[in-house]
Structure formats: structure tokens, C-alpha cells
């Protein structure tokens, strides 16, 4: 399983509403994420709206493409796009700034036995 971390920027003045929209997420959206190969998916937010996401997937591109084929994702992304800045017309799930993994404890422990 591959690990992915990404950044997005939520409009700070909309952050509380953004959080409310995720509590809870629609059951059909949760099922679509699971069925598309997203696992161990979490979002973290700073007070200034910086959003950090973490997800595990065999292949993030394939998982994103599978989600793009679902009707629920189209509805979700349409409703979420108003919360973000800097997407240049892309949906939030297309605007991830992926980060390079620098360190992972389990990987390094496994390497030394």
C-alpha cells in the first residue's frame, strides 16, 4: 500500500463550515471512497485554512479515476469547490499538491530488521 500526503487551501473564513460538511460525510460518498481504493484517509486543518490530507492506496491516480466515475463524487466536488482557493477551475480532488515522503518509521525499522 502506498502512502500519499497532499495540501489544499480552504478559505479561512469558510473553515468552520467546511468542517461541518465533513461531520458526517454522506454514507454513499464514504462507500464510494472505500470501493475506489481509498484507505486510511484523513484530513487535518490549520486555523488559517491549510488542509493536509493523508491517504493510502495501491495507486492514487487509479483511485482518483475510479472516484471520478461516480455520481456521488461529482455532487460532492461541486459542493466542496466553493471552499477552496487556488484550484484554477479544477475540482478539489484534482487540485492536490502532493508532497514527497521524507521519512517513515516503519520502513526504516523494517530495513534494519
From TrEMBL:
Gene3D superfamilies found in the cross-reference section: 3.30.70.100
PANTHER family, per database record: L-RHAMNOSE MUTAROTASE (PTHR34389)
Taxonomic superkingdom: Bacteria
Protein name in UniProt: L-rhamnose mutarotase
Name of a matching Pfam family: rhaM
Amino acid at each position: 500500500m502506498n502512502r500519499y500526503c497532499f495540501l489544499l487551501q480552504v478559505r479561512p473564513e469558510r473553515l468552520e463550515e467546511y468542517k461541518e460538511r465533513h461531520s458526517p460525510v454522506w454514507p454513499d460518498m464514504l462507500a464510494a471512497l472505500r470501493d475506489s481504493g481509498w484507505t486510511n484517509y484523513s484530513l487535518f486543518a490549520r486555523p488559517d485554512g491549510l488542509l493536509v490530507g493523508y491517504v493510502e492506496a495501491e495507486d492514487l491516480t487509479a483511485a482518483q479515476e475510479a472516484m471520478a466515475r461516480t455520481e456521488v463524487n461529482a455532487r460532492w466536488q461541486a459542493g466542496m469547490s466553493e471552499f477552496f482557493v487556488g484550484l484554477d477551475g479544477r475540482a478539489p480532488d484534482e487540485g492536490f499538491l502532493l508532497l514527497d515522503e521524507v521519512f517513515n518509521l516503519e520502513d526504516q525499522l523494517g530495513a534494519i530488521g
